[in-house]
Amino acid sequence: MTATEAGTGADTGAGAGDGGRWAPGDRILWRYRDNGGDRPVHICRPVTVVQDTDELLAVWLAPGTECVKPVLADGTQVHAEPLATRYTRPRTTVRSRWFGTGVLKIARPGDPWSVWLFWDHGWLFRNWYVNLEEPRARWAGGVDSQDHFLDIAVHPDRSWEWLDEDEFAQAQRVGLMDGVTAQRVREAGVAAADVVRSWGAPFRDGWEHWRPDPRWQVPPLPDDWDRTPAPGSP
User: Fold this and answer.
1) What are phi and psi of 120, to 5 degrees?
2) How far is residue 217's CA from residue 47's CA, in Å, rounded to a whole number?
3) Where does the pLDDT of residue 21 fall: very low under 50, low under 70, confident under 90, or very high at 90 and above?
4) For strand 124-133 and strand 113-120, is the pairing parallel, antiparallel, or unpaired?
5) Phi, psi (degrees; rounded to nearest 5) at 142
6) What is the spatial distance between Cα 21 and Cα 194, in angstroms, rounded to a whole number?
7) Threshold 0.70, pTM exceeds
8) 6 band by pLDDT with thresholds 50, 70 and 90
């Protein structure tokens, strides 16, 4: 299935399809667990499945989607807090809308990153964004991961740059990531950059021309967005 063929699902199901795969149009949760000790879910984004195969999971985060995000306990936005105390001050989670244009998220099973596509208004393609993260764990209601702070921006002219290196370093300083893990994350970033240099999948696959099915509605945020997958859940 090509990128231009992938966004034509009509049904909006809820759960994995036959054989443990979701069908185009199914609604799932794309979640991230905290980097702290108990690692509760602190980011949850309801998304619509675009494609789910042995090689690729692609989902659409629609504009206006109600999501869950972390904030500081006093309500301060995380990135408004100085870097020195950004990861040490108490946090909570709040419900918030995904404003602006939507995001297409693409991930290959086992890769320690996902690739996000951003557009400006009018479907003017802006850039790819490589989010370094734990390989996603699938369960009946979606996928779970953990963010690794370091990211890569990939521009339409195929140039690229590291992002958030200061946050990556600070996470190590405050003990959210040990040296062994940090080295593994940096190696994953180098591997992702090699894919960019060779213009491998998904960058070469034309996803920037993809558009969501106009029949898809914005998926709701369930009350049990932070539920723990049942033992043995796929």
Assistant:
1) -90, 175
2) 10
3) very high
4) antiparallel
5) 160, -145
6) 29
7) yes
8) very low
